[in-house]
Amino acid sequence: MTGKIYLNLRNNQQEETQLNIKCVNDDITELSVNAKLDCLPYDFQKVLASEYCAYADISINGNIDGVLSRVQYNPFWSRPSFEKDLSKLSDNIQNILIKQGDKYTAVLPLCMHDYNAYISPSADKNTLRIKITKYYEGSKEISGTFAIFAEDTDPYNAVHKAYEYAVNKGYILTPLKENKKFPEIYKGLGWCTWNAFYHDVTEKGIIAKLEEFKNKEIPIKWIIIDDGWSKVSKKDDFKITSFFEDKTKFPNGLKGFITYIKEHYGIRQVGIWHSLTGYWYGIEKDSSLYESQKSNLTKTNSGYIVPSAKGAYEFFDVWHKYLKEQGVDFVKIDTQGNTTEFFKGRCDCVKYAVEIQKAADRSVVNNFGGNVVNCMGLSNINIHNRPYTALIRSSDDFYPDKKGSFREHLEQNVYNAVFLGNLYYCDFDMWWTNNDSTADSAALRAISGGPVYVSDKIGDTNAEWLKKMIDKNGDLRLYDGVAVPTIDCLFGYDKTLKVQNTINGKTEIKEFTF
User: Fold this and answer.
1) How deeply is 60 buried, as exposed, middle or buried, from its count of CB atoms within 10 A (0-12, 13-18, 19+)?
2) Given a cut of 90, is residue 254 above it in pLDDT?
């Protein structure tokens, strides 16, 4: 392997520096940099740029037969992309897998210390460009490992080798999936309030839906109360004002409501939604929540109030303890990609994002035994820094009213899982049993290896679809791993995408034709 690395300075200037290439063994190579700008005391203009502070160009020798990329297309979500020309890649790639004959190379950019790495298009079809960013301008040095290359004759093993090495070295704080247990509750069917009610969720509406499940003899064992349950600002309804529930929506309080539905409808576990930053735009300053938690909060450059790195654990711990006292069994933590966006421009951007991620994860394990649905957080900054939890949402939302959206939903889930499935059990999101994509949605969830839950509106659930998926005890068939594309579809497909998983060691394949 050969390559060069350049420091990217303010005013579009570059300086070449030393690229460290460490061949760990025949299969694993580690790339690192240790550079400091050499400048005079009065040379204040000579600093690393904000967009990215360094980039490495690595030569890929030989013909490239296929490339699978996991592209971060917004702060929250990623999707697959297929190319053979590295100069035509998308920007902000979190993982890449390169096919050359019968050899596969997985490239894993890292989030380390105060920087994050990702892959971008280069100037040459056989050159891989890896960028390193601190998300602020003014730094004068960059130091550490920023990427792992792993090779194998099996593409899935190549990816696994990269993750295994990075985890064992402590470069990734999230343990491998093979060392985690699938949460017991997800062995049964679930239901989420989101597509049924969106922000208009109420205890009356949830009870009406549970009554429908009871009448149709559908054994729902867990539910998620999604966004819409909490108190929000009258001035800005994207800011939260309290840890407590909105009593106009839940007049019996969460505790009374949760006790009732567990006793009357056999619901075993109730999860509840909240944001990693408090709410979409954080915390309302003119609120009781701000007054009680202000020592644990910080103001972003844009003026938003969010948990601070130092105070985040106490912030989440107080909130989670309250929810646990109300009978909540787990949480869904959303908008996780927002932390990096809020802190861009600050010299502690990456550190803040990582510390808040870790704090939420620690509170979840202490209060809910680690049971959390991590959502809207597919950047490596989020993915690599959850030391305890096992489950991740692996795609953007299921959009029941958006015709033709299932194909994108399918592709995101199964191609993202090629990479994410090494660290997590993957949640392929909720779905509808009365929709133009119902048959495909049911098939995908059945083989997913993750939770199976719907979000039908009141009166809309087709019981037959759900009853096909469970045994006489109401339990799902449990697959061994996570659903991924078959090897012949790994670098793209024509009309039929084949998806595989194993159950009791035996491979099963489902085909989706478009």
Assistant:
1) buried
2) yes
